[in-house]
Fold dTDP-6-deoxy-L-talose 4-dehydrogenase (NAD+).
Amino acid sequence: MRLAITGAGGYIGKHVAQKAYTLGHSVLKISRTESSKDIVHKLDVLEASQEDIVHRFLEIDACIHLAWQSGFNHQSSYHFESVLKHYYFIEKLILSGVKNITVAGTMHEIGYFIGEVNEYTTCNPINPYGIAKNFLRQSLLHLCRQNQVSLKWLRLFYITGDDENNNSIFNKLLSAERNKEKTFPLNSGEMLFDFIHVEDLADQIIQTALQTTYTGVINCCSGTPVSLKTKVEQFILEKGLSIKPEYNKFPRREYDSYAIWGDASIIKTIMSSIPNRDIGK
């Protein structure tokens, strides 16, 4: 299959592109900036004209839209400023003839919620990142229904792995270790989250993008709640760090639930139904 991946130079996009190559797909990697390590097609899809989109996405079977600026800064007002540009990009993509589209969402669309999240869970986002993503989800579901396009909206949960290149607590732990700090302050660590390794996430994204049986909101997650404390201490042990976590030094963020995880039933069905094999270009 001929896949286009926007945000291919980003934290998640690099792993998704590599997974697609491993499975034997032809991959068009698109990024706003060129990479010296890995050749990508330089294009700012949020500013591109209809002609640019038609030219770059000619004969593409499916597009995975991962591009999103300031994704690690949940409070940035830029999310509001840019969200309509994402909508117009997908609209141009559809007008260019692409009928299979996968877009990265986030569990922050949900807002404050305790328990298991499924595709029907009511969304009430409470930070700019979640609000913008939720608006885009609602808008694209309507747009794609109107144009008979297969849209997979992937609700991503807490991502781990490749920790030098993300902005998570695990990256901060590594940085504190390098700075020879003895302790690392945390909140209570008792909150339960749904953690997924970026390599497993990349696999889920690719396999979901390939199929069209399941559309709409699909959780990309492990389906298993794990306490932050457990994950932090496991990370310290696995990495052989000497730093010691100090709990109850900070309150939890107001939009972080005490316990939230994804219903993984759909993604598990998708993953079990598509064999991992070379499929040819």
